[in-house]
Amino acid sequence: MSDYAKDVLVSADWVEERLDEFQSDDPGHRLVEVDVDTELYDESHAPGAIGFNWETDLQDQTERDILKKADFEETMGAAGISEDSTVVLYGDNANWFAAYTYWQFKYYGHDDVKLLDGGRDYWVENDYSLTDEVPGFSAVEYEASGPRESIRAYREDVENAIERGLPLVDVRSPEEFSGEVLAPPGLQETAQRGGHIPGAKNISWAAVTNDDGTFKTADEIADLYAEEDIDGEGTTVAYCRIGERSSVAWFALHELLGYDDTINYDGSWTEWGNLVGAPIEKGD
User: Fold this and answer.
1) Helix (H, G, I), strand (E, B) or coil at 263
2) Cβ atoms < 10 Å from Cβ of 149
3) Do 109 and 154 have their domain in common?
4) Which residues, listed in sequence order, are joined to residue 50 by a DSSP beta bridge?
5) 63 lies in some domain
6) How far is residue 102 from each of residues 92, 116, 162, 167, 227, measured CA to CA in Å?
């Protein structure tokens, strides 16, 4: 994985070789499975993996926002994670919510965090170790150094991108992008209007991964975005519906390619599609 700009991916073999460390009460290494619910985790997971429910554990329960700094610190510390832990994240759907959680860790200044390449599906389908035993690690103190606002986009950043013609990457399906549907099949519709942010390019989150969920090479990812004139010059804003799929694109651009001026708009279409007065486009 040396062709990537940053050392932020680990293989399933790498994790398997270190399962003893991930199962130790020593907080030096922590393995975390993150999904929108914990049903799959409850059935089986990698030995030593902590299970986080993205919606209830990592989102503020009174505001539509990520955890506040103090709540993030409390959640991590209670799980046995310190700010010095090597944290490896993985999850379903080729790491949708794991990538979001990676971005959230980076937002709060955690340096040593990585994604398991291929996520849960790759781990399970290739017969790596599984258990239904839930680890109980001793609580520790967690002290966040963030927030690092340089990786997060807000409404004003999107408005600025529209005004200046900066790259906007919409990673949703073509049907969501065109405004035919408001959400992927089976998921709750969360916006009043369909369509996309003016000037956005529709580059699917899945375009950066292989069929097995692992990430494509740096050259392949760079070529993919270069076809839409996205090369790391100027601020690039990634968005989707609620910010999780766009985190995969942010990870590919910011971490794997080293395009450091890439920001994730976690408000995404749930915010933009409900705003009064915000411009939208429909169709391809």
Assistant:
1) strand
2) 11
3) no
4) 32
5) yes
6) 14, 11, 27, 23, 27
Stated pTM of the model: 0.96
Q: Same domain for 18 and 66?
A: yes
DSSP per residue, 152-221:
B--HHHHHHHHHHT--EEE-S-HHHHHTS-SSSTTSPP--SS-SB-TT-EE--GGGGB-TTSPBPPHHHH
How far, CA to CA in Å, does 68 sit from each of 43, 71, 111, 178, 247?
A: 30, 5, 18, 34, 19
Phi, psi torsion values for 123, nearest 5 degrees: -60, -45
Enumerate the active-site residues: 240
Q: Report the C-alpha gap between 40 and 102 in whole angstroms.
A: 20
* Residue in 151, 167, 170 with CA at minimum distance from that of residue 231: 167
Q: What is the DSSP letter of 51?
A: E
Same domain, 122 and 103: yes
Residue 277: inside a domain, yes or no? no
What domain range includes position 242?
A: 150-272
Exposure b/e, 13-33, CB count within 10 A at least 16 = b: eebeebbeebbbeebebbbbb
Tens of pLDDT along the chain (284 residues) come to: 559 999 999 999 999 999 999 999 999 999 999 999 899 999 999 999 999 999 999 999 888 899 999 999 999 999 999 999 999 999 999 999 999 999 999 999 999 999 999 999 999 999 999 999 999 999 999 999 989 999 999 999 999 999 999 999 999 999 999 999 888 887 777 888 999 999 999 999 999 999 999 999 999 999 999 999 999 998 999 999 999 999 999 999 999 999 999 999 999 999 999 999 999 999 88
